[in-house]
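ARCHIVE CARD
SHELF: 3
SLOT: left
DATA:
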Amino acid sequence: MGRRRKAREVVLQALYAQAINGEPLKSVVKDQLSRADYDEEVKGFVRRLAGKVDEEKEALDRIIAERATNWDLGRIALIDKLILRMGLCELLHFPDVPCKVCINESIEMAKKFSSSDAKRFVNGILDSVYKGQVLKEK
């Protein structure tokens, strides 16, 4: 498994733990990073991604709500919402990560951590945002 994929999994676990127990995200991230011997690149990416997702949570949720037609944000499974937040955050705020990589990594996370239908849902939302960004740039 690549270092960035491992970092994404750590971020997902931290976001999930924070959503369940309500502890400050920095504390949860620190705890997650203490569980294994991660190199500095992984640690840095975990901190950057987790922090940006937390900082942009409301804006990311608005985008999800806009793109998830016929779905109330409260009805979306927590794990799917977290995967979407992470993927959107990378698409919109991490120019060093190619857009296709953001989408593919999010789909892989959905396959691994969510239901069998989640990959299509995640792909649909992220692809919609990606296509919207590409059209804006033209």
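SLOT: right
DATA:
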Amino acid sequence: MPVSGNQIKAARALIGLEQAELAEKAGVSINTVRNMEAAGADVVRVRSDTLFRVQEALKAAGVIFVEENGDGPGVRMRKKPKPPAGK
């Protein structure tokens, strides 16, 4: 799925991470994160393994990447599981 710089930036904002924190969690440089976000509404153009690591770090924190659905691509948070009844 193509991902835009705005999606990366919005995902990071949803979970309250600074660029440096995302870079560390994904194992990439802060400049890589900056360059990805600088793509804005355009699709991020980086090595596929780099994009995968950044997306996986964001997904592990609860982000879901939403594909283009007529209203544009986006991101949202995964629902937290409901606690079992009686707890």
